[in-house]
Amino acid sequence: MKSKISIFALSLATVCMMSSCLGGDDTEVVYYDDAAISNINVTLKHYYTIKNKKGDKDSLVSKTITGDNYGISIDQYNGTITNAADSFPVGSDLKHVVISTLATVNNGFAFIKSTQSDSVFQITDSLDFSTPREIIVYSSSAYSKATSPIYSPDIPGTRKYTVNLVAHKEDADSFKWSKLDADNDIKNYTSVKAGICNNNLVVLGKTANGTELKTLVDGSWKKVKTFSNNATMATDGNVAYVADNGMIYSTSDATNWHAVYADVKNILGVCGNEMFAMSDNNKLMVSLDKGFSWTNDDIDEDAKFLPSSDYNFVATKTTTNADIRRAFVIGNSSANSTKAVVWSKIIEEDVKKDQSWMYQEFNNMNYYYLPKLSNLNVVYYDNYLLAIGGNNDKLYSSSDCGITWKKTESFTLPKGFSANEVSLAVDADNFIWIVCTGTGQVWKGRFNKMGWK
């Protein structure tokens, strides 16, 4: 970066000498009018902290990262170069960036504009990209005619690019909670079920006089409908379903309701075109027509191992095929005094007959089982099954489809959290919601990376 005109003059002299020394009058030098960057890559340092083995001290370390691992791309139409699609991690040093690769069409010449003036420099040393920088490319034709490279995009045979390198300003794996105002109705509920309807939080809470459904819209609670104390609820993110005394009520806006007759006790959830519920005699049921008719679903083990309380239904998409989903029914059973029960099945949208529900037994060799927790609540978040219950003092997670469960350190409960009973829900913006009886607390939180678009 220290050489300005001298480097340019030397390059131009070299071009002229080559044309005069290659022979006589038969030598022809070909110049091109194309001015474009065809490939670019950068390297820079990423600084981050690690803890020692005792976990009581932090050390600052660094590693070299490259732009091609973060989606650096060239937009020829708009003349921009950026990695905005996949920002560098927080702690990346954008003030000392080395352009490790810069290829131009037909051997054009690239210069970078100064941050202080319209002067341009050949790209050699590390550069400050903490703010957008501009690169101008001279075609070989324009370069041969210039007496000195200047910053002027209006010169024929030149092209300007704006380079905008970006880094995250927050740690991807940092989990942040925010607390809403406590709600007195939720505080006094004897039990609660949370869900998401039209991407709004809805709760079904039991009171001495029945069960009421409330929804949170724009930060304000609204009572929507009252049911009997037998009511149960399931949601799929868009629609809320409430089963109550032989009827299933559904709504997509928590205002307008549709009802069908259905002889089910506990509605579990919806996956694709299939709706699942438990019957009065604790049989696992399925409906293929939005709750109008129900049949016993197939299971591969004795029905006594089905949940008989604290029912949870979770549906997840598989990573290999968007049309294949895995559904879970998780809860507590009177057949097991120490462990929760986990059932799962594969649901294929283009197949008329699904596989049977499979009982995932925790055998005696599996020390990482999900314990039997009162008021067990399970959701799916960031490729993990998350469970809470009992004293509500810890979260359990499973990354292998419910086979093993461990107390999680990645997901931590918010400071000041207190509840008699909790219910979890996950919305389309990747927020986890916690609704707490006994205190009326309502929390929402997410990993920073789950909010990045």
> How many strands, which pairing sense, and closed or not: the largest β-sheet?
6 strands, mixed
Termini, distance in Å? 36 Å
Summed over residues and divided by their number, the pLDDT gives a mean of 88
Strands of the largest sheet, in order across it?
3-4-9-8-6-7
**Beta-strand level of the residues, as a percent range?**
35-45%
Overall outline: elongated
In brief:
The protein has 453 residues and is mainly beta. The chain has three helices and 33 strands.
Describe this structure in words.
The chain has 453 residues and is mainly beta. It has helices at 5-21, 140-145, 184-188, and strands at 37-51, 58-66, 73-75, 80-82, 98-104, 109-113, 120-122, 133-138, 158-164, 175-179, 192-197, 200-207, 210-217, 220-227, 232-235, 240-244, 247-251, 258-261, 266-271, 274-278, 284-287, 295-296, 309-317, 324-332, 341-348, 358-359, 377-381, 384-388, 396-398, 406-407, 422-426, 432-436, 442-447. The strands form eight sheets. A six-stranded mixed sheet has the order 3-4-9-8-6-7. Strands 10-33-32-31 form a four-stranded antiparallel sheet, with no helix packed on it. The chain has a four-stranded antiparallel sheet with strand order 11-12-13-14. The chain is elongated, with a radius of gyration of 31 Å. 33% of the residues are buried.
